[in-house]
Fold each of these.
Amino acid sequence: MSFSSVNTIWVLVGAALVFFMQAGFSMCEAGFTRAKNTGNILMKNLMDFCIGTPCFWLVGFGVMFGTGTALFGWIDPLILKNYDAVLPAGVPLWAYAIFQTVFCATSATIVSGAMAERTKFSAYCIYSAAISLIIYPISGHWIWGGGWLADLGFHDFAGSTAVHMVGGVCACIGAAMLGPRIGKYDKDKKPRAILGHNLTFAALGVFILWFCWFGFNGCSTVAMDSDEAIVSAGRVFFNTNLAPAVACCTTLIFTWIRYKKPDVSMVYNAALAGLVGITAGCDAVDPIGAAVIGLVCGILVVLGVEFFDKVARIDDPVGAITVHGVCGAMGTILTGFFATGVSTYKGLFYGGGFKFLGIQCLGVLSVIAYVAVIITIVFTVIKKTIGLRVEPAEEIAGLDISEHGLLTAYAGFAMMPETVIDDEDDVVYVEGDTPVAEAVPVKRMPAETSAAEAGPKFTKIEIVCKEAKLEKLKNAMIKLGITGMTVSHVLGCGIQKGKPEYYRGVMVEPSLLPKVQVDIVVSKVPVRSVIETAKKVLYTGHIGDGKIFVYDVENVVKVRTGEEGYDALQDEE
């Protein structure tokens, strides 16, 4: 067999790009989950590739590409047998082997996001190995290794079904068996929004994945040594870019109408949904078909995330089930409608009749059934032996510390405290006498003194307002003669209990909103002047302008000089 340097380089470049998708998945999953689990997410995305690589080398590649039967290849540890029958023209065995290895790792890493924040790391390593050893290779053999679906004419160019839907089905079964994260649902089974901690990470991850998808789809032509291959690669690249772009625009408009504002995280998910959807037919559809696939996936990603979150109550922190599972299946089926015949496949809308569409549907359903059965067995065995989920206390503390002994992935940065708890106890109102051991200590304030004994009066004015008004308020107070103030960033709410917003289709009801608290103690400056000035500065007429509280102060002490009372509040001459 003679080798083509152009084809070999093309395949190896594609392998490098698909490998770099691991970085994109890592950042996406870390960004869409909480900071206390970041180290665990990063570790899992590293290890599923590192575990999957030797597993695919020892078993998976032979099972997938061995010319055994229509259902199963062969067991070929170390890839020693002859694979000339399945190798692309001009591409050597080891170049093709690494190209397929990185695809296998992609399928395994999809599961990580849906099962994030509550899965034992040891369990993850085991089922990740199972996906690379048997689950992905067997269905891959049916589709790409000369198996029965390939014989029927099933078309999945770069893996909407073979890679993404397989990972999405595993993710769905795993997330369902794990159960939701603590605090995800209230007692009435209504979902709570658990916000990801770093949208910047998630956005960068999506852009990395989009970039690498040109290798994922484009280099799946596995050839660049002919005019036909060059034209095909150009079409694949164009469609690969068009579908996610249309999906993002669709989701932006759809969420703008549905939630009254465009949902940032959902639009980023739409980019991945469009990429997954076009992967099956990027070589077979024209730009019109690619745009329609993107449009459908842009709507489907919103409805799918909402369905699993609100109806099925399967907790998927990153939307992997919908993005990869649902949109992978839909993209494969839509190829049965929009394939133009340019790559021998003709869809229903281009005169191909129902046969090709039926084969696409059969392939999707058969792979779903196979993967669901096998992964259920794998998860059940893990659950009954070492356990699938961490203990509640470990989950609340975060998997970084409980699974890896990592105090934080963000040393030097303060973390938001955990505020979501499960099965909140009702408030117990105590009546009558309470034992001293159970009583709350009460700080007793000294008795009030008479006005004659008190001397000059000191008043504390506490102003809670929007941070945007702070600079204006500060300047106004200084002009009024205020010689000192204390400013704190606080969280609070008024009668309205916060303004409802949406995150990934779930209403966020923040009872505590970020505000600024300005504390001022005055004696010489009239209290009424401070209040009226603050009112004029802060007033907009809208809810959230703030509150002003006024307190009597018993005494003031300046630490440096020891001065007390009126003198402690004055500037030094």
Amino acid sequence: MDAIVAVTSAINSVIWHDSALLVVLGVGVLFTFWNAFGQYRALTHGVAVVTGKYDEKGDPGAINHFQALSTALSATVGLGNIAGVAIAISLGGPGALFWMWMVGVVGMCLKMTEVTQSMMFRDTSDPGNPHGGPMWVAHRGFRRISPALAPVGTTVAVIFSLTLLVSTATGGNMFQAWNVADISFTYFGLPHWIAGVILTLAVGLVIVGGIRRIGEIAGRIVPFMCAAYLLAGLFVIALNIAEVPAMFALIFTEAFSPSEGVGAFIGGTAGYGFLKGLQRAFFSSEAGQGSAPIAHSAAKTEEPVREGVVSGLEPFIDTLVVCTVTGLVILSSGVWNRDAALVYDTAPAISPVVVDGGEAAGAADDIDWGIDPVGVTIGDELIADAQMREGAIVFVVVESGTNAETGLERSRVFGELTGSDSAGWTVEFDEFSAPSGVTPTLAVDGVFFDFKGASLTAKAFDRVVPGLGTWIVPVAAWLFAFSTIISWGYYGEQGIVYLFRKYDQGKRAVMPYRVVYCLLILLSVQFIRTQDELDLFSTFGTGLMLWVNVPIMLIFARMSMRAHHDYFARLGRGEMTPTR
């Protein structure tokens, strides 16, 4: 596992480099000007299309505009909004939320462009079961430019399909399932494997029905779960309304300055907050990733731009509304920089790890250190309530030289809680490394529970309204995860269909894929150990897809922009009238 983490981390350092993120943001700004601020069109004409005013029964496709939007939203409005925002703030600080907003704004035009392209090149040979996505854009688009470029298009399409499957497995499946299992264990003591079995069976019953059943289920679940979660979040924010101006000031200030470590928050440079905000926003909104166009390609319409405009609503709803509510709840609660929940019986000792030869383990410039097991008692009842159980993951904050990720001095050292109420509780810590010549010290007194993703958001609700997070967030997490997993299951299925299209149009490979996809839920609930690993793996697939899809978008941008301006010119001339 450690080797997998190391390799994934090395790849992420390249694909998520600040310069790469700036390029993606720059492409979003380019498309914003190129399509004449299409965000406005999404919020006006896009809403009219979703309500069915332009539906035509005879158009090719399997689902209507509302179902297509719901299916895509079920993949985007998910645990990325509950868990992803929590990860962004707990790792990158309040400034990360500002960069999430930036992605939400430009993401509207990124999404409109990629969906329009996929609608232009989708395969409607079977009108009731169309196939689309960036793989079909590359496959057909390069051929349209020149038949000689057909091999290039096929190669690019295959590469995208493979990255799609990686992202399906990591962010679309593992991230969702693991968060559900974690929050169920955190609040109710439900073993991870039981949560995995329940989710596996539920997902399996839906995805065997294909896009029609997924669209029907998503059309029912998404509006309900969004409304319930937003109402709970707005209620919590209303209780802290006097603090909202200060929270916005903090968000804007820390977006451009270092965030000093306080309590559980270890701090980070402005660049680190920028990185985490953009990572989680791209993961949550899927803007530029190329996944949502697969769902939209099943929509009933003859007008590619019409569905593209509908898709622009997704980043607005997902990032600018739902993520903002989650972020304000977390910031207003103070759970992101909370005090320690457990206090030491005696302060733990930190010493170098000695090997048989009598010297500290590690390379010359990297020494391994260990923290002696320490007895603990509860110091914060509200945070520790129901968390005191065997195997609970905790951490302490140490100063151990410059943290390579955050750029500041503090780091987390994780451990595991053992014991019982009657026998007492003890924490056994993992070993950690520090540069040669640096003597690590404890930066904060006490031990913190490692609330990861959705569990942190739930604790934020509970700190403001005790008991609210106990139910609203776990229920929302289950619904969000379920809807996201079934939608991403369809996305991955379309990648399989393309890769095996020459063999019975990929139909023979679909059922084995569905079985493996469902089994992956069971594996994932035991696979990831910490919040850092959760962040690492979930952003890995997103990054790969961005690197392949953004060039595809740029290559065919002229075609989609020409279609965009032509569509609205015809709309302005009254050539397209509502059907009802």
Amino acid sequence: MDNLLQRINRSLPAKLIITIALLLIVGVAISCVTLIINGRNTLMRYTVDHIASSSELVKRSIHYGMLTFDRESIQRIIDSIASKENILGIRIFDSRGEIFFSSSSEEIGRLVDRSSFACTGCHSDPEKPSATLTADKQWVIYEDRQGNDILTFVDPIFNDVSCSTADCHVHPPEQRVLGVLESDFSLAPLNEVVRSQIVDTVVFALLFMVFISLLLYFVLRRFVLNPLTVLAGAMRRVGRGELIQTVPVPSPDEIGLLAETFNEMTRELEIAREKEKTWTETLEEEVERKTEELKKSRDRLIHAEKLASLGRLTADVAHEVRNPLMSIGGFARRLNKCLTGGREKQYAEIIIGQVDRLESILRDVLTFSRGVQYRFEKRHPEKIIATAVERYKHLSTELGITIRVRSEGSVPPVLIDEEQAVEALGNLVVNGMDAMPGGGVLTITVGTEPLNMITYVYIRVEDQGQGIPEDELPYIFEPFFSTKEIGHGTGLGLSITRKIIEEHGGFIKAESPPGKGAAFSLYFPYQSDEEAAKTPCWELMQCGRDRDASLKCPAYPHFGRICWVVAGTFCEGKIQGTFAQKSEDCQRCRFFHLVAKKKRPAGSS
């Protein structure tokens, strides 16, 4: 027995077949029992209806005899009906319980106990026999001494009008029940039919279970067990190191998907083994290459630090050079006024021009390197555009350039330092006009765009120039990098614009499709007054920024509800890691889930 159980435990087919067989047995058994019980009840109901009809027939047959008080006629009718098959006896009681008529002559004249089944139906309430003797109380089943099932049916004989008005009748009209007709019937035929039904049902159930079991075994064998056996053999070979194994895909169902997954896994394993072999063979080369990459990365970091140091030194030098340069420029202008002509005046004008150029460079260097105290106020972007266009209107007219301003929908006001924003936009306008020396159209567009689950207000400047080469596009925002000719510009305009827009919590984006002009977009983060009035991030996160001014946070005090795009994970501008460092990932931040997940702007990703 233990060996058999162990073999079954190790065999999937055996467990499946046993489980299905048990489920079939339980299901078929329940169905058979329910079917047999329902069938027997139906047969019993039909039998009782038939017996009730027979009892009514007896009552109608003896009705005339009772009106004429013809006892011999009534007895003949009872004897005739009682001789029928399966009718074991018929008797009639009067209202006192005396047997007046019976198919068994020795019973005539006998009194019946009022506690018997024939009397309890009426005598529980003698005044209302028709109401108390309901259909389910008219019959009872019992076993006789030989163990046969007998059904006794009682039917009251009422005192109708024809009886109470007959000349020969002795019963007054107010008497409701004259007597009771009791009939005994054998249930042997019914039991025989039920036994036959049980045998037929059991045989059919057994045949059905055998057929279903064979069918399920064939289906499992064909579509499950055989493919799994093949797959198991292939997996054993893979375990021995034979990685190149392919099994047939028997069908497009889950088994087929399992086979496809196995084939894909073996291919990946073979590829991985080949890669591992290749990596092992070229490990030394990989180490050398990685070492070289690390050296280059270190050199880039050193170069970046040098540039940072050079930037600080340049700012200091610019401060020192500016005063002497102003003196030189002043003396050159005075000398130019004193001279009336000749080479000396020409030289003085050259000095003045170069001094002006140097002052412009120093001004841009100081603007780029100094820290500016920003004053943010709610401003409409259209006002910023109007100020910038007015400032450069005369220059655009001289160059034959038309400036067009478009608005894409309703644009809300945003937090802006007006002076700095005008300077940033002015740099883009000047660059656009420089890109079109032969004239053209400079388009300035203002609108809104959903990005990173908030709304941005953008100002886009598009020119019709030659565009920016694709290989130079990543470097255009670096200080002193310029695509213009030497002597035109300082290479700091875009760097200053980028610095200004990032101080606003936004970012700048440059695009230059092949064969078209360049487009520069300034993105300002926007939040409504209703959003800004809600719980700010520093209150929810309890970082203490609102109580301790030394805790610097680029999101405080205006951008508390959009900190993830100003200083966190989704920030596309200046690297400001306060909240990103605090939460590591904004998508795991409690404040992010409280605000960003409640209502995302339409079209956000």
